[in-house]
């Protein structure tokens, strides 16, 4: 099964890079940049995505639509696309690739399927193509063949089951470890900073937790650039855990850590322009200034 035209909504760090590799493998890749930020427009241009100017044209021209955007916008985008599909009586395959809970994926699937469209649930694990390895797209649903046809085209496609929500579940439990751990690391060093034991703790980590300290130094100073969209992802993880009887409060707390980082000046950076020379100590000294309430040592 082959598709000539793939639409990517909306082309951020991951989306534009996926679009680039699909173009390199012979696909026409389109998007709609109307109302998008200058950064998003620059990313789309870097990926060589063709701006068709409207959602009307996306639905008219696409064979396959990949939704890749912050999770808070996933349901509303699907609703907007379905409204346009119904107006045109044209139903390109819709793939939700967002970091959403299984129940949110099922809600989106219901929106698409009840309109007469075809839906695939997908969860992306790994960095954007060209940034350290090939991202894995876990896919699930009654018919994932359309996505399997993209396997090896700069991305890897892996089946997660025949139920809508299973691919999203994979994303949720994976990100619960990665981003959840980053927020735990951040919270620990912020607490140590305000308790006056930061340097002593780092020295102890250098002696007894070298691998953990390397991870802390490598991630904590830079996660603020993505903090705004990761708030929603942590909330989706918490909802996922709660649905299956696992205590959700850890990842609710992770969302709160990202809310702190979202307020810092570092949150205005992007992955392309962030200050990679920033140290852990410099980052933490800024982060603690944005903690809620007033800490009096």
Explain what this protein looks like in three dimensions.
- This protein has an 8-stranded mixed β-sheet with strand order 3-2-1-4-5-6-7-8, with helices on both faces.
- The chain has 2 domains: 5-164, NAD(P)-binding Rossmann-like Domain (Rossmann fold), CATH 3.40.50; 170-290, N-(1-d-carboxylethyl)-l-norvaline Dehydrogenase, domain 2.
- The longest helix has 30 residues, at 166-195.
- The model has no long low-confidence stretch (mean pLDDT 95).
- The chain has helices at residues 13-24, 38-47, 55-61, 74-88, 102-114, 145-148, 166-195, 198-208, 210-219, 227-243, 249-262, 280-287, and strands spanning 5-9, 28-31, 50-51, 64-67, 93-96, 119-125, 136-140, 156-161.
- The relative contact order is 0.10.
- Helix 3 packs across helix 4 (74-88), helix 4 runs parallel beside helix 5 (102-114) and helix 10 runs antiparallel to helix 11 (249-262).
- The chain is globular.
- With 297 residues, it is of the alpha/beta class.
């Amino acid at each position: 099964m082959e598709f000539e035209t793939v639409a990517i909504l909306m082309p951020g760090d991951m989306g534009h890079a996926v679009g680039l590799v699909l173009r390199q493998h012979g696909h026409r890749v389109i998007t709609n940049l109307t109302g998008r930020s200058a950064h998003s427009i620059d990313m789309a241009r870097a990926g060589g995505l063709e701006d068709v100017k409207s959602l009307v044209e996306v639905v008219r021209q696409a064979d396959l639509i990949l939704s890749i955007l912050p999770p808070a916008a996933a349901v509303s985008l699907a609703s907007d696309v379905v409204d346009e599909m119904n107006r045109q009586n044209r139903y390109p395959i819709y793939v939700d690739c967002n970091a959403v809970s299984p129940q949110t994926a099922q809600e989106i699937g219901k929106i698409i399927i009840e309109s007469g469209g075809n839906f695939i649930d997908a969860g992306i694990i790994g960095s954007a193509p060209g940034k350290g390895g090939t991202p894995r797209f876990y896919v699930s649903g009654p018919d994932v063949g359309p996505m399997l046809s993209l396997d090896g085209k700069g991305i890897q496609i892996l089946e997660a089951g025949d139920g809508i929500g299973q691919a999203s579940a994979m994303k949720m439990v994976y990100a619960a470890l990665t981003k959840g751990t980053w927020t735990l690391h951040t919270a620990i060093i912020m607490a140590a900073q305000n308790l006056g034991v930061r340097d002593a703790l780092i020295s102890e980590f250098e002696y007894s937790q070298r691998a953990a300290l390397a991870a802390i130094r490598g991630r904590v100073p830079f996660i603020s650039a993505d903090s705004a969209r990761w708030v929603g992802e942590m909330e989706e993880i918490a909802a996922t855990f709660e649905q299956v009887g696992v205590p959700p409060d850890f990842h609710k707390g992770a969302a709160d850590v990202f809310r702190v980082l979202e307020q810092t000046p570092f949150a205005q950076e992007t992955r392309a322009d962030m200050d990679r020379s920033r140290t852990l100590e410099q980052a933490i000294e800024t982060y603690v200034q944005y903690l809620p309430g007033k800490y009096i040592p």
